[in-house]
Amino acid sequence: MSGLVDLVALTLLPPGQWRAVSEQLQAGWTAPAILEHHCDQRMAHAAPLRRRPEAHVLRSRATTALNRASRESIECVPWTDARYPFVLRSIADPPPVLWIRGSMSAFEVVSVAIVGSRSGSPYALAVAERLAADLSARGIVVTSGLARGVDSAAHRGALSVGGRTVAVLGCGPDVAYPREHETLMADIVATGAVVSELVPGTPPKAHFFPRRNRIISGLSRAIVVIEAGEKSGSLITARCALEQGRDVLAVPGNILNGRNRGGHGLLRDGAKIVESADDIVEELGFGFGRTAALRSSGAVPESDPVLACLLPGEPSDVDTIAERSGLSTAGLLTRLFELELAGLVRRAAGGRFVRFDRTC
Question: Which residue spans of the chain are classified as CATH 1.10.10.10?
Fold first, then answer.
């Protein structure tokens, strides 16, 4: 419990320090050492008469947050937990902890993010709902940000066919924002999940939303942008996706009203055009020979050290694979994600991985 308290306390540091915290965790620092280090630094640079929260104060607030989460049936999942979404753990700065309401199984299948304008046109909302419904019908989880406009249309589209959807919030996991989406949020929790890196009760603030975009893309194999202006927050998500090695796709829009200039810019820069869910499924490589293509290109050599230490049908956890392969955890997570994209590795229950070989 004490280790979890320290990890939560790290998320209560100022947002400007979160990237450094992630880097230190991945470099092997312990949570208590990181917390003391940052608190000492803040005290050293503070004005003599200006008090800064010390480590014990942050730990007290973290304990309060954990108790609140327990009362409200919110899971606190640290990045070291086998249940922590594998694809998110592989990004450069994964959240130290995730607060999750709903089903953890929503993170065990392929996800596609659908994002776009908060003031989406009727066309954009219809496209978002249709794409989400069609993807959900294929068993794909739809991830978005519960915002007005395209985001909420995507969530509703997934729910309309009995599919699962994940909402990533820029506030605490128990805070409905915008307020009118409280019922939608409850519907999402019933079959999918609501997730945040912010402790329960955290109100929405402007600087939280750009950072939550990296989680939307980090949880997803591909990101579909529908109707984004030149300064749309959806472009931040697309940029995060590119940095994380995810596929970026965009839906063309009306060239006369200027609502989709950001989306058209993505298309000019090489994003795949989306006219139907089939375009997205094809980009993911499901049923289109992607595995064979990757093998023939040399992207997945037969002598791959990770594949060599995995037996078909025998699930293994990350620690076991790291020990067998000799790879660092960070390098292993990246390689496992690449192999999953190639269709050679699949996730099993409990955060384990199994080799998938059709020839065996």
Answer: 290-355
Residue 114, token pair as written in the block: 């659908």
The helix/strand/coil state of 333 is helix
Q: CATH 3.40.50.450 spans which residues of the chain?
A: 104-284
The CATH T-level fold of domain 290-355 is Arc Repressor Mutant, subunit A (1.10.10)
Within 8 A by CB and 6+ apart from 69, the residues are: 75, 76, 99, 199, 200
Task: Determine contact, residues 234/228, Cβ cutoff 8 Å.
Answer: yes
Dihedrals φ, ψ of 219, to 5°? Answer: -85, -10
**∠ at Cα 148 (104, 105), nearest 5°?**
10
Burial class (CB in 10 A: 0-12, 13-18, 19+), 272: middle
DSSP E strands: which ranges in the chain?
Answer: 75-78, 97-102, 111-116, 141-144, 165-168, 193-196, 222-226, 247-251, 272-273, 345-348, 352-355
201 neighbors 175 (Cβ within 8 angstroms):
yes
pLDDT by residue for the chain (360 residues), tens only, comes to 668 999 999 999 998 899 999 999 988 999 999 999 998 887 776 555 455 568 889 999 999 999 999 999 999 999 989 899 988 988 989 999 999 999 998 998 889 999 999 999 999 999 999 999 999 998 899 999 999 999 999 999 999 999 999 999 999 999 999 999 999 999 999 999 999 999 999 999 999 999 999 999 999 999 999 998 887 889 999 999 999 999 999 999 877 677 888 889 999 999 999 999 999 998 887 643 343 344 444 444 556 788 888 877 788 888 888 888 887 765 677 677 667 766 678 777 666 788 876 443
Q: Which fold has domain 104-284?
A: Rossmann fold (3.40.50)
Could you tell me the two tokens for 20? 């450094």
CA distance 16 to 125: 34
